[in-house]
Design brief:
15 strands, alpha/beta, 6-stranded mixed β-sheet, 11 helices, globular, 437 residues
């Protein structure tokens, strides 16, 4: 199983700054205005050979003076359900507040590792103020500065100690895993029931009926793989932002441990921000992709022009990666659902495709000679040789050049597009590295 670390805390203590520091990105918006972070952020952290998913759970815009306590309590509850480790961020410059005490009271009841992160310790004289946080009853505070990075290495050392557990399971790892992912109430469980020909998963109109990720072995029509229903949302009476957050947290694990992801989109609503969040998780984890537009049976206009417009709209949102299959159907009427399985199986096969070095060079070197990388600083860049690495997670190609540091992302995309034009890698990501000749 993959590991999830959640950042919790009251507004304006530096949660988003810490998220950006640990993920080495600028993905989360940082501001001194309390409640800046509304949409949840998800990133990956690598440290000492360990990789884990980091979730920024911070920030709401307050409509009333009392909204924070209820919102934070719900958020902490969700984070506690799904996370393996919780980072409780406090502000050393302001000390303990009433909200801090209330959060600490909740976290003390959680039987998971909780680290008190004393943020904004920008100089050594502030370290002595951290003694106040012992009264929270959550152990030693870790003094850090998310802004400068001071102390974050020691914190990461402690976090990854929780992940040194042997991973054992009885599943057949030679069998591919296809994850059915999407936002709540898009029809994931209905699709799996249709695949299996039985009501194996509970289906209701209430968003969030499915509580756990369920693995189902599928062995029919010459195909053999695991189907994973990734809904994983607690049953609630209405949809709110906590449901969306809970959905992605559960999907993180299933996506990271799958080979191909079937991203389901509601044909009535089109591709939305939450769909894009899950799409980015699939891309970040280098998983194969099949996009299935569900509930197409209730769409009035099913003309070729309408389908083409829908496809172009989706591709424009997911650019630059547009080389993946989009299928239209209905889990309710079983229309086109088995084409989804066929497409996922084909994508999995393409992830294992290997191109011989001779054919690769025979095709790519003339193209590179006709369209060489642009010169930089008066120096001409020459690519003389290329090959595909064997036994990689996704097709990975190495191009050897005299000045690899001067080859930029646009030219790497050019190389990828030419590979895709010549060989069929539809649905699977490709990695390209430029190395010294």
């Amino acid at each position: 199983m993959s590991n999830i670390v959640s950042i919790v805390g009251r507004p304006n203590v530096g949660k988003s700054t810490l998220f950006n520091r640990l993920t080495k990105t600028r993905q989360a918006i940082v501001s001194e205005i309390s409640g800046t972070t509304r949409d949840r952020q998800y990133g990956t952290v690598e440290w000492n050979g360990q990789t884990f998913s980091l979730v920024d759970t911070g920030g709401w815009v307050a409509k009333t003076d009392d909204i924070f306590e209820d919102e934070i309590r719900r958020q902490v509850s969700i984070a506690a359900d799904e996370a393996d480790v919780i980072l409780f961020v406090v502000d050393i410059t302001t000390g303990i507040t009433d909200i801090d005490n209330e959060l600490a009271d909740i976290l003390r009841r959680i039987k998971k590792p909780v680290y008190v992160v004393s943020n904004k310790t920008d100089n050594n004289s502030l370290i002595y103020n951290s003694a106040e946080f012992y009264s929270l009853g959550l152990g030693d505070p870790y003094c850090i500065s998310a802004l400068s990075g001071s102390g974050t290495g020691d914190l990461l050392d402690e976090i990854v100690k929780n992940f040194d557990k042997p991973q054992t399971d009885d599943e057949d790892h030679s069998v591919p895993r296809f994850a059915i992912v999407g936002r709540p109430n898009v029809g994931k469980s209905s699709l799996i029931n249709a695949f299996m020909g039985e009501e194996r998963h509970i289906v209701t109109d209430i968003a969030g009926t499915t509580r756990d990720s369920i693995d189902t072995r599928y062995n029919k029509f010459g195909m053999d793989f695991y189907l994973v229903d990734t809904a994983g949302i607690r049953k609630k009476t209405k949809v709110n932002e906590d449901l969306e957050f809970y959905s992605v947290m559960r999907s993180i694990r299933a996506i990271e441990n799958s080979d191909v992801c079937v991203l389901m989109v509601d044909g009535q609503r089109g591709i939305e921000a939450q769909d894009m969040n899950i799409y980015r998780l699939i891309q970040h984890n280098l998983k194969g992709l099949v996009l299935f537009v569900n509930k197409w049976d209730v769409i009035e206009d099913k003309s070729k022009e309408a389908i083409k417009y829908f496809e172009n709209t989706i591709y424009s949102r997911t650019a630059p990666f547009t080389d993946y299959p989009i299928l239209f159907g209905s889990a309710l009427t079983n229309k086109n659902i088995f084409k989804v399985l066929q497409a996922a199986n084909e994508v999995y096969g393409k992830k294992k495709k290997n191109i011989s070095t001779s054919k690769l060079n025979e095709t790519m070197l003339p193209l590179i000679e006709a369209y060489p990388p642009p010169s930089m600083k008066g120096k001409y860049i020459k690519i003389k040789y290329c090959s595909q690495l064997p036994d990689t997670q996704v097709p990975t190609f190495i191009f050897y050049a005299n000045l690899p540091q001067y080859i930029k992302e646009p030219y790497i995309r050019f190389l990828e597009n030419k590979i895709r034009e010549k060989w069929d890698f539809k649905g699977t990501p490709i990695r390209i590295f430029i190395r010294q000749k």
